[in-house]
Amino acid sequence: MSEIMHVQGLIFRHSSKKKWLKKPEVFELGPIELSVKRGETIAIIGENRSGKSLLAKMLVGAVAADEGVIHLSNERYNAARKKTTKSYNRSNDIRMIFQHSSEAMNPGIPAGMILDEPLRLNTKMTENERKAAIEDTLVKVGLLREHYYFYRHMLSDGQQQRIALARAVILQPKILVADEPFAALDPSIRSQSVNLILKLQEEMGLAFIFISHNLGIVRHIADKVIVMDNGQIVESGKTETIFRWPQHEMTKKLILAYQSLVPQQTLN
């Protein structure tokens, strides 16, 4: 697999306002070094407030870094505040899937218009070309062409998730980033969503970076696992290596908690 993204020295510093008789809280993430290969699935795990969601937002450009460089598809992006010469979050090669798909859909706009926006803003397609691309993408994510005209209230939770996925892939990205994309779904819909993403990965050669507390899903679909604690990557490696031979104390804690919930015979 060829490398499509490389992150160097990504740092974020945040200081909360000083409160009465209390020192200001300081949170620092990084420096982060990581690489992503074509078709690779990377899971980022860690406890709450470990910095994993912040890292995901920094990777897609939704949050600016204080320092760091991101190489994506042979282009170099300076991710630091006030120094960005090219707007990183406008890159079509990396897109984000929202956790709560219903909140990402305007209830007054049909699905077709929601999917039309990224094409209208980022391509030179004609209206007919955009409509054809939208319908093809709807079919690709397991919906019907007729769903172009459906509003949010007409769609089930699973269908809304598929619209969110369609919006993420419609610009033919190379990387999808998702923060807990399956957490809000019931088990049956969650399984369908996982299988759909695996199918799209194979068809489109997508890399998938996702944050999850569900280590069962992580073990099932991830090629590589990154463990974060207090803003740092404390361990990373192939999924089975991490699950069988965790080295860092935080990794051991997370794996032990997972194993306590799973019948022991399924771990071998």
TrEMBL record:
GO terms for biological process: transmembrane transport. InterPro entries: AAA+_ATPase (IPR003593), ABC_transp_ATP-bind (IPR050319), ABC_transporter-like_ATP-bd (IPR003439), P-loop_NTPase (IPR027417). PROSITE patterns: ABC_TRANSPORTER_2. Keywords: ATP-binding, Nucleotide-binding, Transport. Residues 5-255 form the ABC transporter domain. One of its GO terms (molecular function) is ATP hydrolysis activity. The keyword NAD does not apply. It comes from the Bacteria. Belongs to the ABC transporter superfamily. This is ATP-binding cassette domain-containing protein. It comes from Alteromonas pelagimontana.
